[in-house]
Amino acid sequence: MEQQPQSSSSNSLLVGLLERARTGDVAARDQLFSKCRNYVEVLARAQVESWMQAKVDASDLVQQTLMEAHRGFDDFAGHSEGEWLAWLRQILTHNTQDVIRRYRRAGKRQVHREQSLDVHSTGLSGSFRIDPQDVQSETPSQLLAQKEREIELADAIAQLTPDHQEVIILRNLQRLPFDEVATIMKRTRPATQMLWMRAVKRLESLLSSPD
User: Fold this and answer.
1) Using CA atoms, how far apart are residues 163 and 140, in angstroms rounded to an integer?
2) Can you tell me the distance from the alpha carbon of 14 to that of 150, in angstroms, rounded to the nearest whole number?
3) What angle do CA 129, 122, 41 make, to 5 degrees?
4) Fewest CB atoms within 10 A around its CB: which of 47, 79, 82, 89?
5) Inter-residue contact 182 to 154 (CB < 8 Å)
6) pTM, to two decimals
7) What is the pLDDT of residues 76-107, one digit of tens each?
8) SS3 labels along 117-168
9) Residues 6+ apart with CB under 8 A from 194
10) Residues 8-17: pLDDT tens digits?
11) Are 41 and 169 in contact (CB under 8 A)?
12) pLDDT tens digits for range 106-139
């Protein structure tokens, strides 16, 4: 898999923590997983926010994924931030697929709401593709052009209000049309689009703020 350039600040921090954790530094290992919790949580929510929302708690997937990563830490052979995050996504993908299979066997599948696992293979920032419908609007698009700011993006989303988080996840990560987002959020389409514009502006502000 071709690796994209990473944000230098997050890359150096995570790589440093990863290398120290490998030497047996327990504090560095705990900090490494703590830094990645928001990232795993946003990806997990992107998978269960709609069609499995009422049946699956994303926090359960997050906990299971991080526990398995802890147990299998010595098996991780990579060295870069990209490889580390891809490894976490792989574990999360496996756990999500297990949940999907269980609901299929139980006859509880909702085909019309089922989402793909593309966000797991492309990463978080890789899923923030510009939608033609959004480009034509008057909303800011700087955020959507950001590349490979995985940890920063997840941390910024975690700072949003619950409504802003939900509309970003549904619109930008799940790629749902505004009409469907509006139905899920029990709002009118114009109100949903306005909420989304405000959420994007807030996210851009958080990402552009100095550390």
Assistant:
1) 19
2) 11
3) 95
4) 79
5) no
6) 0.80
7) 999 899 999 999 999 998 888 887 777 666 66
8) CHHHHHCCHHHCCCCHHHHCCCCCCCHHHCCCCHHHHHHHHHCCCHHHHHHH
9) none
10) 455 678 999 9
11) no
12) 665 554 444 445 555 566 766 666 665 665 554 4
CA-wise closest residue to 151 among 63, 39, 66, 59: 39
* Per-residue burial over 70-102, b = 16 or more CB atoms within 10 Å of its CB, e = otherwise: eeeeeeeeeeebbebbbbbbebbbebbeebbee
Helix runs in the chain, H state only: 8-22, 26-48, 58-71, 81-105, 118-122, 132-135, 150-158, 162-168, 178-185, 189-208
Residue type, 87: W
Answer yes or no: are the C-beta atoms of 211 and 151 closer than 8 Å: no
What is the CB-side half-sphere exposure of residue 172 using CA atoms within 13 A?
32
Handedness of CA 78, 81, 56, 70 (dihedral sign): positive
Task: Output the pLDDT for position 3.
Answer: 41
